[in-house]
Automatic annotation (TrEMBL):
Assembly, per entry: Interacts with UvrB in an incision complex.
Lineage summary: Bacteria, Bacillati, Bacillota, Bacilli, Lactobacillales
NCBIfam families: uvrC
UniProt KW Cell division keyword: no
InterPro entries to which the protein is assigned, alphabetical: GIY-YIG_endonuc, GIY-YIG_endonuc_sf, GIY-YIG_UvrC_Cho, RuvA_2-like, UVR_dom, UVR_dom_sf, UvrABC_protein_C, UvrC
GO CC annotation, single: cytoplasm
Start and end residues of each UVR domain: 197-232
Organism: Limosilactobacillus ingluviei
Name this polypeptide is given: UvrABC system protein C
One MF term in the entry's GO annotations: excinuclease ABC activity
PROSITE patterns in UniProt: GIY_YIG (PS50164), UVR (PS50151), UVRC (PS50165)
Keyword annotations: Cytoplasm, DNA damage, DNA excision, DNA repair, Excision nuclease, SOS response
Length: 603
C-alpha cells in the first residue's frame, strides 16, 4: 500500500516513455527501470501484489523520480547509463570489463601478434574472446612459429634470436616488404576465423620434407604442432555451417529468477559458455534487454557479427543501440542453439532452487532450534552487539543483523561511544549503544528485531533489559552469548536470571550462534583497529607544534606510516612544502618517540 505522499506523486505521472528511479528512506537510488508509459509502469508496482525481490523492493521504496525521454530507444540508453552510475541494489549489475583475453594483430609498419585484455580503437585486428589465457597463449605460440610477423623490438642492426629460429621476418636488421606482412596477416586471419585446413596441409608438407631430409627433430616439432591444432584448436565440435562470429543468449524465467546462458560461437565452434542467475524485479524481457545492453557496453568487449536472442525482446532497439544484427531464428541450427541454451538455463535454475531450498531448510531450521530452546515463538531477525577497546582506549560498539539465519551486511552498524566515562565499563557501553540504536528505530518508525544477542554474560544482558524496559518501553527478548575457557562458543543465557540454555554442539542452531558470535566479534574488532590506527597516527602528529590537519594529511599520503616519516630525511619532508623548522621538529619528535617506545618494549 503506497503512502499518501506516494499516492500524490503517482497521480502526477506522465503518459510518456522514460526512466524511473526508486529511492529508499535515505534517498539512495535502489532501482532504475525504463518504460514506454511511465504512468502505467510505475503505478503497477504499488497497485498490484508482488512476491520475492519485487515485494522486497516495493516495501523499501519511500520516494521515486522520473526522467521523460523523447523515444523508447532513448529510455534504453538512459537506463543503462543510470544503472552504471548509481549501481542500484535491486538492478542486475555487471563488472566493467570482460576479463577475457583476445589475440591482437597490431596496426603498425612492422606488425606483431599479441595477447591483450585491452580493446582499443587503434586500427588493430582483434580475435576472441578466448576461454582462458593459456589457450590464447598456446594459439599465439603456434602462429608465431608457422606465420611469423615481428617478434623483436625493432631495428637493431643485426638479426635477433627469433629470426634465427624462424619466428621473426627480420625487421631487426632489414626492411620487410609490406606485401610480405600482408600475406602473413591474411593467413593469420584465415586461421583465427576457423580455417585450419590450409595450415594443416602446409605443416604436413613441411613435416614430410623434414623427414625426407633426415631432419627428424624438425619433423617431430612439426608433428607436435599438428597435434596441437587437433587437440586444442579443433577440440570443439563444429556446431555451425558458417564461420560468422556470433553470440547466442537464451534465458529461462521462473519464480522471480532469471537464468541466462551465453554461447560464444567462434571459428564455427562453441569457444566459451557463460551462465548467470539473478533474482529480478521487472519482467523477463525487460531484464534481459537491460542485461544485454550492459553486457556489450563493458570495456574490452568485441561485439560479435551477429546476436541471436529468443522471441519477445525488442530486437530492433537492441540492434540500433549495439550496431549489429539481432535476430530470432525460426528454424534450423540457429534455432536449435537457442533451444539448447534455454534447456541449460532451465537446468541451472532448477539446481539453484534445490540449493536455495536446502539452505533455507538449514537456516530456518537453525532459527527454529534456537527459539524452541528459548521457549519463544518463531523469529526472523536477530541483532547482535559487541564492544571493543584496547586497555580502555577508543571504545567502540558494533551491531550485525541476521535475517532468517543469513547475515544482512547492508544493515550492519558501527558506533563510536561518546558518553562512557570509564572505558572498561561494559554496562555503560551497552546502555549507550542500545539507547542509540532503538531510540532511532522508534523515532524513524523502523521495524524492530525479534531477538537481541549480546556477546557477553549477565551484566550486558541486564544493561540491555534496563534500557529497553525502563527507558524505551520495549519488550524484545535479550539473549547472552557466552564462551568457554578456550574462547569458543559455549551456551546461551536467557531470562531475568540469565539462565544457561544448552544447545547441541552438533546442531544447526549451535552452528548459527557460533557464526553470529564470530561475525559480530570480527566486525567490532575490524572497526576498532581501523579507528584506533587512524587515531594513533593522527594524535602523534598533532602533538608536534606546527603540524596541522593539512600538513598531517600531506605526510601520511606521501609516506603512509609514522615509521616511514620518522626514517625520512629532513629534505624529503621539506619537499612536501613544509618549512625547515617544522620539518626538523617532526624528524626529532618522531625519532625521540620511537626511541622511547623501543626502550619501554625492553623493560
Amino acid at each position: 500500500m503506497a503512502s499518501e505522499y506516494l499516492e500524490h506523486k503517482l497521480a502526477l505521472l506522465p503518459d510518456a516513455p522514460g526512466c524511473y528511479l526508486m529511492k529508499d528512506a535515505h534517498g539512495e537510488i535502489i532501482y532504475v527501470g525504463k518504460a514506454k508509459n511511465l504512468k502505467n509502469r510505475v503505478r503497477s508496482y504499488f497497485k498490484s501484489s508482488h512476491t520475492g525481490k519485487v515485494a522486497k523492493m516495493v516495501a523499501t521504496v519511500a520516494d521515486f523520480e522520473t526522467i521523460v525521454t523523447s523515444t523508447n530507444k532513448e529510455s534504453f540508453l538512459l537506463e543503462i547509463t543510470l544503472i552504471q552510475k548509481h549501481q542500484p541494489y535491486f538492478n542486475i549489475k555487471l563488472k566493467r570489463g570482460t576479463g577475457y583475453p583476445y589475440i591482437k594483430i597490431t596496426n603498425e609498419r612492422d606488425p606483431q601478434l599479441q595477447i591483450t585484455g585491452q580493446i582499443k580503437n587503434d586500427g588493430a585486428a582483434y580475435f576472441g574472446p578466448y576461454p582462458n589465457v593459456y589457450a590464447a597463449e598456446e594459439t599465439v605460440h603456434l602462429l608465431q612459429k608457422v606465420y611469423p610477423l615481428r617478434r623483436c623490438s625493432g631495428y637493431q642492426g643485426r638479426p635477433c634470436l627469433y629470426y634465427h629460429l624462424g619466428q621473426c621476418l627480420g625487421a631487426c636488421f632489414k626492411p620487410v616488404p609490406e606485401a610480405e606482412y600482408a600475406a602473413q596477416i591474411k593467413r593469420l586471419k584465415s586461421f583465427l576465423n576457423g580455417n585450419t585446413k590450409q595450415i594443416k596441409a602446409e605443416l604436413t608438407q613441411r613435416m614430410e620434407a623434414a623427414a625426407a631430409a633426415l631432419e627428424f627433430e624438425r619433423a617431430a616439432e612439426l608433428r607436435d604442432q599438428l597435434h596441437y591444432i587437433e587437440v586444442t584448436v579443433e577440440k570443439q565440435k563444429i556446431i555451425s555451417n558458417d564461420k560468422t562470429p556470433r553470440d547466442v543468449i537464451s534465458y529461462y524465467f521462473d519464480k522471480g529468477w532469471l537464468s541466462l546462458q551465453i554461447f560464444f560461437i567462434r571459428q564455427a565452434r562453441l569457444m566459451k559458455r557463460e551462465k548467470r542467475l539473478f533474482p529480478v524485479v521487472d519482467s523477463a524481457a525487460e531484464e534481459m534487454t537491460s542485461f544485454i545492453l550492459q553486457f556489450y557496453q563493458r570495456k574490452n568487449n568485441i561485439l560479435p557479427k551477429e546476436l541471436l536472442v529468443p522471441k519477445g525482446l525488442p530486437n530492433a532497439e537492441i540492434a540500433g543501440i549495439l550496431g549489429i544484427p539481432v535476430r530470432t531464428p525460426q528454424r534450423g541450427e540457429k534455432r536449435d542453439l537457442l533451444a539448447m541454451g534455454e534447456k541449460n538455463a532451465a537446468l541451472a535454475l532448477r539446481e539453484k532452487f534445490r540449493l536455495l531450498a536446502m539452505d533455507k531448510q538449514k537456516t530456518t531450521g537453525a532459527m527454529k532450534e534456537i527459539t524452541d530452546a528459548l521457549g519463544l515463538p518463531a523469529a526472523h531477525t536477530i541483532e547482535a552487539f559487541d564492544h571493543s577497546h584496547i586497555q580502555g582506549a577508543d571504545p567502540v560498539s558494533a551491531m550485525i543483523v541476521f535475517v532468517d539465519g543469513e547475515p544482512e551486511k547492508k544493515l550492519y552498524r558501527k558506533y563510536k561511544l561518546t558518553t562512557v566515562i570509564d572505558h572498561a565499563d561494559e554496562t555503560a557501553s551497552t546502555k549507550e549503544v542500545i539507547r542509540r540504536r532503538y531510540s532511532r528505530l522508534l523515532k524513524e518508525g523502523q521495524p524492530l528485531p525479534d531477538l537481541i544477542f549480546m556477546d557477553g554474560g549477565a551484566i550486558q544482558m541486564a544493561a540491555v533489559q534496563d534500557v529497553l524496559e525502563n527507558e524505551l518501553d520495549l519488550a524484545i527478548p535479550v539473549v547472552g552469548m557466552v564462551k568457554n575457557d578456550k574462547h569458543k562458543t559455549a551456551d546461551l543465557l536467557f531470562g531475568k536470571a540469565a539462565t544457561p540454555v544448552h544447545l547441541d554442539p552438533r546442531s544447526q542452531g549451535f552452528y548459527l550462534v557460533q557464526r553470529i558470535q564470530d561475525e559480530v566479534h570480527r566486525f567490532a574488532i575490524t572497526f576498532h583497529r581501523r579507528g584506533h590506527t587512524k587515531h594513533s597516527l593522527s594524535s602523534r602528529l598533532d602533538e608536534i607544534k606546527g603540524v596541522g590537519p593539512r600538513t598531517r594529511t600531506k605526510l601520511l599520503k606521501e609516506f603512509g606510516s609514522i615509521d616511514k616519516i620518522a626514517t625520512a630525511s629532513v629534505e624529503q619532508i621539506r619537499a612536501l612544502g613544509i618549512n625547515a623548522k617544522t620539518a626538523q621538529l617532526i624528524k626529532v619528535s618522531l625519532q625521540k618517540k620511537a626511541a622511547v617506545n623501543k626502550g619501554s618494549s625492553h623493560d
